[in-house]
Amino acid sequence: MQKGHEQQNSQLTAAQEEVARLSATVRQQEVELKELRALNRDLQRKLIDSLDSRQANSSQALPPALPAALSPPHIAEPLPQKLEVPDTADIGNGLRITTSAWQRIQTNPKDSLFVKDLMTAVWSPTELLGRSLQGKHCPRFPDRPRKEPLSPWKVSAIRECYKQRLEKKGLVPEMMPGALKQMNRFMVEKLSDIERMTKRATKELP
Fold this sequence. Notes:
mainly alpha; two-stranded antiparallel sheet; two-stranded parallel sheet; 4 strands; 6% strand; coiled coil; BEN_domain
C-alpha cells in the first residue's frame, strides 16, 4: 500500500512539474508576443514617418503647378508611319483600280460579269446606289426625279476596256456597235441589282 501511495505521489509531482513548465512557457510566449507587437507598432510608426518625410521633400522639390490656362499644351510627336500604297493599274483615261482586281476581272468568262465587276471596281456599291447610266427619266416612272448619272469619262473608260476585250476575242468590227450597246444593258442591270438588294436588306432589318 505504501509503495502504491509513493508511486501516485511521484506521478502527481511529475504532473505538477509539467504543468508548471507549460505555464512558464505560456508566460514566456505572452511576453514575446507583447514585445513583437510593440516592435511592430514601432516599425509601422517609423515607416509612416519616413513616408511623410519623403512626401514633404518631394513636394518641396517640385515647382508649383501652373493653372490649366497657363500650362503649355502637350503636343505629341506623330510616330513615323509607313504608308502602304496599293498597287494600281491604269485601265484607260487615267482611271486606276487595284491591279489584283483588274487581273481577276479579266479572267471572267462572261462579258456581263466582266462589265459588272469592273463597275464595282471603279465605284463602290454605295456610290452606285441611286445612280443611273445617263441620268434620263425612267420610262416606267416618268414622275420620279432624275437620278444622278455615272461619270461619263469613267463610263467611257469601261467601254474602251470592254471594246478591247471583244477585239481580243475576235469580234468583227461590224458587230462591235451592237456589242457596245449590250454593255449599257449590263450596266443598267447592275444598278438595278444594287437597288433591289438594298431594298431587300432594308426590309429585313428588325
